[in-house]
């Protein structure tokens, strides 16, 4: 090999070595002057939190979603759901605590064009690709305690999420356990009726239907059952005016099952009831009144539960709704009529929810705890009925189809085959049938 060839080879090797030396290695973790500092330094006490708002994006409906909980006049309410009462003290405390002592752990970039890859686009931006969830917490004076857009989970770091402040470009990976539900039913009182099974001494079910085209009530055949006071096990007997089914006897288990459904009844949505009820407001939800205004009907029947303190619950079942999301839970934007019945029968059964109207009153003649000569208005049952009436008087409720079917059973389902040779259980003397009054259409 001559000298020129050797020099050429040396130069080539040197060039290769230089290229290798200049090849970029793993990007070093970049630290900024604020890395490691608190994300919200002035937010140190969860009890400061008086409101929480979460803004997200509904892919199915292609629109923003908003869920808000706020402390008003000493009570928690859900403004995004017409100020429905919230059971928010414990849940709000946990949500607020999620942002206490959160540090700006790892810097991940400042370029706006990279925000989509972190899932940190503004959820209100119509042109965004990968929207985050904006979470804002304020104190009682309206001062912002924390305001942040939360994005995707960090793949290589357990318990970390990408975040950025809404008015800034900088992205951080932070260790945070965001425990915030935007599910309406997670924030409300689970025991809607505030009724205990042992309180119920009488139960009535009538699965009539309202023929809206003719203004008639059809299929009315009320079943009334009463707790057997002489039986310590609490068995049930047919009430006056209720007739047994030939060859059948009352099934106490089915009675208890229906009453248990009342005790565990949970709602899936609410609609504000106007202060002055109108026929239009009632009929839009499937409820009808008689021409003289003395009687209410639900187009799918009703049940009553009478308690030992004289409190009487009346539940009327109305129209079906197939709405979902905020249209279901809050009736937003008048979307109730925008959700037609699914063509698939299985889907219709799955998606069916139903309006319910609750009425509560006190009947002193049914109060087993009443004291002779006492003022009925001072009775504990009267006071409880007044509180419950105020609780229910502002709302139409939406319940699931499963709850509806557990509570409102066809009469035949309350009976079982009588043992061989025993014959059917004797029926109570039937009272003269009363023709239901025609409701106003």
From TrEMBL:
<keyword id="KW-0732">Signal</keyword>
<feature type="signal peptide">
    <location>
        <begin position="1"/>
        <end position="21"/>
    </location>
</feature>
<feature type="region of interest" description="Disordered">
    <location>
        <begin position="418"/>
        <end position="441"/>
    </location>
</feature>
<protein>
    <submittedName>
        <fullName>DUF4340 domain-containing protein</fullName>
    </submittedName>
</protein>
<feature type="domain" description="DUF4340">
    <location>
        <begin position="76"/>
        <end position="272"/>
    </location>
</feature>
<dbReference type="InterPro" id="IPR025641">
    <property type="entry name" value="DUF4340"/>
</dbReference>
<dbReference type="Pfam" id="PF14238">
    <property type="entry name" value="DUF4340"/>
</dbReference>
């Amino acid at each position: 090999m001559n000298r020129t060839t050797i020099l050429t080879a040396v130069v080539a090797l040197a060039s290769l070595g230089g290229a290798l030396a200049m090849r970029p290695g793993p990007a070093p973790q970049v630290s900024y002057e604020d890395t490691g500092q608190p994300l919200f330094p002035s937010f140190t006490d969860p009890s400061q939190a008086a409101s929480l708002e979460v803004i997200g994006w509904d892919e199915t409906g292609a629109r923003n979603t908003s869920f808000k909980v706020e402390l008003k006049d000493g009570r928690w309410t859900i403004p995004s759901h017409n100020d429905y009462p919230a059971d928010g003290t414990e849940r709000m405390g946990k949500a607020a605590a999620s942002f206490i002592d959160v540090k700006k752990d790892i810097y991940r970039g400042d370029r706006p064009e990279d925000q989509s890859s972190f899932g940190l686009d503004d959820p209100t931006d119509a042109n965004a690709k990968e929207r985050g969830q904006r979470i804002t917490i304020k104190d009682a004076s309206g001062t912002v305690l924390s305001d942040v857009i939360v994005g995707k989970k960090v793949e290589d770091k357990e318990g970390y999420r990408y975040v950025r402040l809404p008015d800034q470009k900088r992205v951080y990976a932070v260790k945070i356990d965001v425990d915030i539900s935007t599910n309406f039913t997670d924030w409300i009182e689970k025991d809607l009726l505030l009724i205990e099974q042992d309180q119920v001494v009488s139960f009535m079910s009538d699965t009539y239907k309202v023929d809206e085209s003719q203004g008639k009530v059809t299929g009315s055949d009320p079943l009334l059952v009463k707790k057997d006071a002489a039986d310590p096990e609490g068995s049930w007997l047919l009430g006056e005016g209720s007739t047994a089914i030939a060859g059948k006897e009352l099934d106490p288990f089915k009675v208890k099952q229906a009453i248990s459904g009342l005790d565990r009844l949970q709602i899936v949505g609410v609609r504000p009831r106007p202060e002055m009820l109108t026929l239009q407001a009632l009929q839009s939800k499937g409820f009808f009144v008689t021409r003289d205004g003395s009687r209410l009907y639900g187009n799918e029947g009703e049940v009553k539960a009478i308690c030992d303190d004289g409190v009487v619950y009346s539940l009327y079942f109305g129209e079906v709704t197939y709405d979902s999301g905020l249209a279901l839970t809050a009736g937003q934007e008048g979307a109730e009529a925008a959700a037609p019945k699914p063509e698939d029968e299985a889907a219709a059964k799955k998606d069916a929810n139903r309006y319910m109207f609750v009425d509560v009153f006190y009947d002193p003649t049914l109060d087993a705890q009443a004291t002779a000569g006492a003022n009925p208005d001072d009775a504990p049952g009267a006071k409880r009925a007044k509180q419950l009436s105020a609780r229910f008087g502002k709302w139409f409720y939406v319940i699931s189809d499963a709850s509806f079917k557990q509570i409102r059973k066809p009469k035949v389902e309350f009976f079982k085959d009588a043992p061989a040779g025993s014959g059917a259980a004797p029926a109570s003397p039937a009272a003269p049938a009363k023709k239901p009054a025609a409701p106003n259409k």
